[in-house]
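Can't attach files on this board, so I'm pasting raw text. These are the components:
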Amino acid sequence: MNKKQLIDTIKLQSKDNFGKFPDQIIITPARVNIIGEHTDYNQGLSMPTAINYWMCAGISHSSSKNIRLYSLNFDKVIEFNKNKRIQFKEVWQKLAYEATLIINKKYHINTSFNISIGGNIPIGCGLSSSTAFVISFVYSILSLLSINLSKMDLAILCNKIENKALGTSTGFLDQYGIIFSKPNQFLLIDFRDDKIQYLPSITTGYSWIVINSKINRELSLSEYKDRVNECISGFHILKTMFDIQSIRDINFNMISHLKEKNRIIYNRMKHIIDENNRVLRIKNYINNTDYKKIGSVLIESHESLKSLYEVSCDEIDYMINFSLEQEGWLGGRIMGGGFGGCTINLIDNKYLADYKSKILYEYNCKFNVEVDFMNLKFCGGIQKI
Ligand code: GLA
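---
Top answer:
Structure tokens for the assembled complex are below.
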């Protein structure tokens, strides 16, 4: 389903389920991350951007005392009341319910509403479908209530909702990547002071593609939290030895003390230091349009995510190892939280079709699963239609 078909479907579903077309339509993109993985919650650097896959929400005032939500992806309507506690089990339901409670507490929702949400973002594979869902839901309600939040406040609110609803402790990569994106630009975010620079995403003759391994990852159930805690422990250990304010102040000399005594923490810290440097290196290579070097940094990043940060999985390692042998594949790596999900790859257009058919065949032979390909366009952040 393309963007226009999605918007039309949301309009029609709103009419079918709730008897009227939406008063407001919000369209929210998915995000990818070019480089800078697991650095956001460590005051580090990342380079995300929004892509051509979307979540669409249509909202309208209602006179019913319950809030009604239709999910296009699950083809289901749920109802709830902001003043009554309910235990929802499914992720989209928990997100919507928690969002309503938190917005109501902060801004007082003085109207009821019907909302339809759905999209073409693959769910649970590292493209921030949950974040896009929350942003669509929250931004729709705020628009209906005529509440204007700054982009930063919207990101903070949505991050709080997602972490509260799912019991996760993620950083701000997904929210910033979606909310602050501009067409054909990569964001270079410094999470120490939240400064954002924009870099041109132009890659004439080359394509960025995402490959979905179809190994599902559930962030709340994964070892993501362990990684967050390991980084906090690393910081506390090093703080007793050095004058540091955050993980960002840690350097190679400092972590050399941990190499023998605490190999796991050493590995995690080494990944963070190297990954921040990789973001800066890719920034330079983008400025010099040196695609080969961009690719080689992606390969380094994958090796680090696999061996030092330990967030990869066999299926994705297989895909990357196979790709290393393929002509025209400049580089790639596991993307997002990890433990499954997608890879992001940079490929020479001349070899793209051949590469795709080979990986489809090989991966299918090995794991009996067909990967999905997403050819990326960089389309900018949220839009009110
Ligand atoms: C997930 C989290 C982000 C970030 C990435 C890893 O996508 O939601 O905050 O930590 O993992 O870079």
